[in-house]
Amino acid sequence: VFFNGANVRQVDVPTQTGAFGILAAHVPTLQVLRPGLVVVHAEDGTVSKYFVSSGSVTVNADSSVQLLAEEAVTLDMLDLGVAKANLEKAQSE
Questions:
Q1: What would the CATH number be for the domain defined by 8-92?
Q2: Which residues have a Cβ under 8 Å from the Cβ of 53 and sit 6 or more positions away?
């Protein structure tokens, strides 16, 4: 859990139908996440970025957002060398 009950300005999510930004009063929706970056823009202007592998995002009528991901890590936790090696291995199989 990275955020729970936090008030944020915007959340950008990658989905199967394209990336989009979620602001207050967004239309309720349910989307399937694709691998990519989730970007959280806090009220104080700070930005947090997370890599997600897959999952779902729900935008509720009360402007709350529920993001469920199989894997979610901060960018500083990623090892680019290992990621590239795993990608090459997966593509060769």
A1: 2.60.15.10
A2: 35, 69, 70, 71, 72
pLDDT tens per residue, range 1-51: 678 888 899 999 999 999 999 999 999 999 999 999 999 999 999 999 999
Contact at 8 Å (CB) between 13 and 67? Answer: yes
Terminal-to-terminal C-alpha distance of the chain: 33
pLDDT tens track for 46-73 = 999 999 999 999 999 999 999 999 999 9
pTM of the model: 0.82
* Domain residue extents for the chain: 8-92
**Cα separations (Å) of 82 from 53, 86, 87?**
15, 6, 9
How far apart CA 25 and CA 79 sit, in angstroms, is 37
For 44-61, letters b (16+ CB in 10 Å) and e give: eeeeeebbbeebebebee
